């Protein structure tokens, strides 16, 4: 905790300095010392620097730039997780626990929303308060979807899967995580500025004129985007440069391919959301007019820049999940991964096509009719490479000996839920249908089947699958299965009715509705409460198993990939002897199949 206190102290001091420097400049131009939102922006940028220096960047990194001795990292035990630790396994756990906490917070906000929507009329909160809660819920959930899975398992598991000792840039890896806690602080602090009511998209020109809480939103998105770019650089470099001997591209585990595609998307497209946030901030605090139509700007410019990132971001959320699902399905079907190369082509096809579909979010924004057609076609085409991934999953299970442990159940749910999300996405890619269903609960249901039904279910699949490897303990299988069925049934009972509600005129982002929709909303709210309670069982299972769970074997699932060929949990550098990859990672059922050997160290004189 000392590290976090140092970070907060450093951040507060830096905030004061940053705001004061801007104040001095303002005084020089005859303005007041405190510039309101402009001072908040200047202070925040300084706060982030002070926070990072305080949590360890100065001690473990920057001192080296001035030829000063760098502090050697010595923390052990649970104290490692509260420090600037460069061990990729610690960083993975930091990501996982932090984003699980944010996920539970966002879920609690969803319960607050559903309480208001149980009956028509104003029940517990005003429309403005509801929109604030809705906006905060959406923003946190998007951040969880973007960073939780690839942040946790891309850090902890990926280097071990390719036989590396660590990430390519360990200090940059730790840095990318420590950008995250200030983002959580910032979003929660927005509540004390009356929040923001723009939804998670922050559309101009509303974002340029609404309450100052939207400044917190802009800065949070910018900061987490910077973290995402750093993580992407690290993953790409690690996979390209640090693969074990014999780990050719055709022998990469499918989760590594999925993470590679995710990193490409993050590296290329995240800069656009950063640009959108900067432009929005400049409009608001510096008198620019990028999006002000009365001053020569264009509100649609924001939508184009925002969605040029945010639709590829959907696949940043889902590609790692699909990779996890395929890993688990192969292991628990005891069969080689069907059509491995086609699954890789499918994932890379998604990466390419995801750059060509952003404007289908703008069919009702005044887009010229002829321009709608190519975006409708590219949106429908993206279902082809996605379908290859589905065929790989189905082909792997066909004729296999399915072992229905908790990770496998969640992996199967990923395929089922994402299929519904994909099919309903094809409906929304069709221009006439999209015009009718725009801003209805049909879109809400589709989005949640894609991101929660695919990405978040995959996050839980990965937690249960790699829990023995990360903790050295087994979770309670019976409780795990109960939690799966609770979550799966509760999720579908909550979101399937939303399709019906959307088809019958239920608008999203509005706290009230016509009385005819009262019964369906009451049912949806009760189902949501049921779903929310199920996560308490998950927390209980993980916490108790961490202390009292059965000691895990090194390879409890009989997996072939490299993470199962080392101890649980792995040693500091992952392997006692450098591994050499000699075959396919999915040779289940094949005589004499072997993925890796550990050559004896060469004799020395």
Question: What does this protein structure show overall?
Answer:
By secondary structure, this protein is mostly helical. It has one domain: Cytochrome C Oxidase, Chain A. It is built from 19 helices and 2 strands.
Ordered list of secondary-structure elements with their pairings:
Elements: H1 2-28, H2 37-65, H3 88-116, H4 127-156, H5 158-161, H6 170-178, H7 180-189, H8 206-209, H9 213-241, H10 254-285, H11 299-333, H12 340-353, H13 369-381, H14 383-397, H15 406-429, H16 431-437, H17 441-471, H18 477-503, H19 518-548, E1 580-581, E2 596-597
Antiparallel strand pairs: 1-2
Helix pairs in contact: 1-2, 3-4, 3-6, 3-19, 4-9, 4-11, 4-17, 6-9, 7-9, 9-10, 10-11, 10-12, 11-14, 11-15, 11-17, 12-14, 15-17, 15-18, 17-18, 18-19
Features:
single chain; 605 residues; mainly alpha; Cytochrome C Oxidase, Chain A; two-stranded antiparallel sheet; 19 helices; 2 strands; globular
CA radius of gyration is 24 Å
Mean pLDDT over the full residue set: 93
Major β-sheet strand ordering: 1-2
Through-space gap between termini: 48 Å
What are the segments in which pLDDT stays under 50 over at least 5 consecutive residues?
none
Order of helices and strands: HHHHHHHHHHHHHHHHHHHEE
Q: Which structural category fits the helices and strands?
A: mainly alpha
Query: Could you name the CATH topology?
Result: Cytochrome C Oxidase, Chain A
Count of helical stretches: 19
- Just name the CATH architecture: Up-down Bundle
Percentage of residues in strands? under 5%
How many domain modules? Answer: 1
CATH homolog superfamily: Cytochrome c oxidase-like, subunit I domain
So what's the overall shape?
Answer: globular
For the sheet with most strands, the description reads: 2 strands, antiparallel
Assigned CATH class: Mainly Alpha
